[in-house]
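sry for the spam today, last one i promise. struct tokens for design, 523 residues
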């Protein structure tokens, strides 16, 4: 990384590829401006994309990343971020975000949708391919604009007109959606089931336990961010070890290792039975399966929200994102192999229980079901911590731009060197959803709120990256990592699929809600 300095018309420019930092007067509206905590108030630091060149006040605005943000002195008291994340912590941000309850429960849904063991494994491979494409897209965007905020920055850079449209739209999406509400709501169920699997817990008890979890995560990340990261990383290691153990156990059954013998092993991998029943549910069921598989890998962009706090973000992103997603893809596929090595297809389809419960019960006995519930609960807690950590920083970035009411409050790192106000906003919206939305269709509707907007954002971001790669947009774009055209196109098309698929009427006999129309699940 080279560094050189120059000045023109009193504006100093310093190059740090791929971004430039320029000190410019704060009297104008210069896009995403950032004020140093020790600034004297008459200059402001902004990030500029491109090569070193002479700049003056008249042409500086068109060079600044994040047009059309707002740079005012209202956020002048915001201290700079502390670089507390290394490549491993960034990888666990992604790992914990992706792996929640999906790998424990989703395989049963995928098998039912595909109709056969073989086709379900093919779907998981397709999901891994789409996830790899999405990872490459977000590595390119993250290394090109390595700062907190994620998609907010990319949308602002690509879609510059009308001014403030993308920023305000994204602000509503980021602030009003309960990103952790789904994970938080089921956390209480698994904790209470681990304590007493024979008793059906009350709704009040489940919600109280869930609120305790997200409140603890908020207080930990807000007051002791270093401790929060350590717990987050520890839970990530725990999940990885548990899933690796499950995968190895399944492979041991297939290899006939002593101690892993089954009296009546399933025949799921015999060629004649492996593909039996493929597409028996029709095209609609297959689409449902594909939709669920792709969603099981969502979370590869989670480190992008916190890049200002990552040490050497360009290098770290090139390591962390592939490391996390390759590990997840391998673990996902091997755990599915393990399920089918231990539990028959008919038992998975006919029992109505999640595949992981059947796997634990058959291999180690029904009494291990409590252990499984505890494992899933710890996996969910890691997910809650990772999502809250990242989204709190997105809210802080919106505060720094003056987009939110009380912007200086949301932009601040006071009093503990963490975005306490941004974390509080996320805690509040998620807690309200978990605590007060009534059970039934309304509750499931609120929990599904994050999925469809996320598909729209991914589609818009990947489509915008295609425009950057083409000659349509004349913006200078030369990040240190570039995804292939093919990967960007495939990711864009996969998100078009995720946007369109939920509008297809479900198969007869399957309705996501009891009283609401099926398309309400899109929102």
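last one done:
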């Amino acid at each position: 990384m080279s560094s050189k300095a120059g000045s023109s018309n009193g504006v100093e420019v310093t190059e740090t590829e791929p971004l430039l930092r320029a000190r410019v007067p704060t009297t104008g509206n210069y896009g995403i401006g950032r004020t140093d905590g020790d600034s004297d108030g008459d200059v402001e630091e902004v990030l500029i994309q491109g090569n070193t060149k002479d700049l003056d006040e008249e042409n500086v605005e068109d060079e600044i990343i994040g047009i059309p943000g707002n740079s005012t002195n209202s956020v002048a008291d915001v201290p700079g971020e502390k670089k507390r994340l290394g490549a491993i912590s960034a990888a666990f941000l992604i790992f914990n975000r992706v792996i929640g309850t999906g790998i424990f429960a989703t395989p049963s849904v995928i098998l039912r949708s595909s109709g056969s063991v073989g086709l379900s494994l093919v779907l998981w491979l397709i999901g891994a391919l789409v996830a790899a494409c999405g990872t490459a897209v977000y590595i390119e965007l993250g290394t090109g604009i390595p700062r907190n905020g994620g998609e907010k920055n990319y949308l602002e850079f690509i879609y510059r007109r009308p001014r403030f449209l993308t920023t305000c739209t994204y602000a509503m999406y980021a602030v009003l959606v309960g990103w952790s509400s789904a994970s938080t709501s089921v956390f209480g169920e698994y904790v209470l089931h681990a304590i007493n699997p024979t008793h059906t817990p009350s709704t009040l008890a489940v919600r109280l336990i869930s609120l305790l979890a997200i409140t603890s995560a908020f207080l930990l990340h807000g007051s002791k961010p270093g401790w929060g990261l350590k717990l987050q990383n520890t839970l990530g290691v725990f999940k990885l070890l548990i899933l690796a153990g499950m995968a190895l156990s399944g492979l041991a059954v297939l290899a006939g290792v002593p101690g892993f013998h089954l009296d009546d092993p399933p025949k799921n991998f015999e060629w004649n039975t492996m593909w039996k029943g493929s597409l028996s549910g029709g095209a609609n069921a297959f689409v449902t399966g594909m939709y669920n598989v792709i969603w099981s890998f969502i979370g590869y962009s989670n480190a992008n929200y916190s890049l200002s706090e990552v040490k050497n973000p360009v290098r770290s992103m090139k390591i962390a994102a592939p490391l996390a997603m390759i590990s997840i893809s391998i673990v996902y596929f091997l755990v599915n192999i393990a399920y089918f090595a231990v539990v028959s297809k008919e038992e998975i389809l006919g029992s109505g229980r999640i595949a992981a419960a059947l796997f634990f019960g058959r291999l180690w006995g029904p009494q291990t079901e409590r252990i499984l519930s505890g494992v899933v609960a710890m996996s969910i807690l890691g997910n809650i911590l990772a999502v809250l950590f990242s989204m709190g920083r997105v809210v802080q970035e919106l505060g720094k731009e003056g987009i939110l009411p009380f912007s200086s409050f949301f932009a601040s790192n006071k009093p503990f060197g963490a975005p306490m106000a941004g974390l509080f906003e996320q805690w509040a919206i998620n807690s309200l959803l978990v605590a007060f939305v009534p059970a039934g269709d309304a509750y499931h509707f609120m929990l599904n709120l994050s999925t469809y907007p996320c598909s729209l954002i991914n589609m818009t971001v990947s489509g915008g990256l295609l425009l950057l790669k083409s000659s349509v947009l004349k913006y200078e774009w030369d990040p240190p990592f570039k995804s292939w055209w093919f990967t960007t196109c495939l990711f864009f098309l996969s998100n078009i699929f995720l946007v369109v698929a939920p509008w297809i009427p479900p198969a007869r006999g399957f309705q996501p809600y009891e009283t609401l129309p099926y398309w309400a699940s899109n929102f």
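The chain has two domains: 5-65, 87-522. ok im logging off now
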